[in-house]
Design goal:
This protein is of the alpha/beta class. Helix content is 17%, strand content 20%. The protein contains seven helices and eleven strands. The longest helix has 9 residues, at 60-68. The two termini are 19 Å apart.
Length: 259
Amino acid sequence: MLLNASPDLRSQIEATPELHPRGVRGTPIEGVVLTSGDLDQVLGLLLLRELTPLRIYSSASVRRIVREDNAFFHMLSQSPQQSRWTDIRPQQPFAPLPGLCCRAIPLGGGYPRWVPEDRGRALNPGESVFGLILECTAEGTDQAGRPGRLAYMPAVAQYTDELLAELDLCDVVLLDGTFWSDDELQRVDPAARSARQMGHVPLGGPGGVLDVAKGLRRPRKIFVHINNTNPILDEDSPQFAEVKSAGWEVAKDGWTLGS
């Protein structure tokens, strides 16, 4: 089960033997859980299938803008059972796979810019961006019998006390590491939006992730969804050193997380 489907999904599959096709038309990928309708979360859906059934979990609003409003994604509905969409609701658990419980947490932020403004205003603002809490229900327990818990949140517009408390109950957190500074893109293009305007809390500085999340003690903390302008990608940079000294890791392709 994939968490989002990025535009480079084809190369991800090619680089991961566990995701390689099984026979001529078979695949080990049973479906996708979408956290938003952003292009970097959904474009990979078009690369996954011809007519092999695909299960897709998303909020009702994301389903509407992707499946119903966008003609490109009609390619996922050429046959009656080609794609089977299931609406997920805030804080209501669902099971995308046997033994896996998933819960969606609203994270704020808006709908993608490709969605017309009048359409975005008509949608539920609480369904625009979700974070996911995943918990094993049958396997994956530790020696004390406690199930493993993982947070996956590639776009976080605001860190509330409630969200930080939720993260501190996890064993591993995969969090939004998109930008280091709020004006990161504006330094390249003055007309660009700031990190916060795009729905991402920057990592550095007062009020940044390293500051507001410094109280997280229990989980293994990993940054994902890192933009190519972010200096933490350079392991010789002072920003990377600051991330490491604060107890965070920078995700790399091919990592496997498990006991």
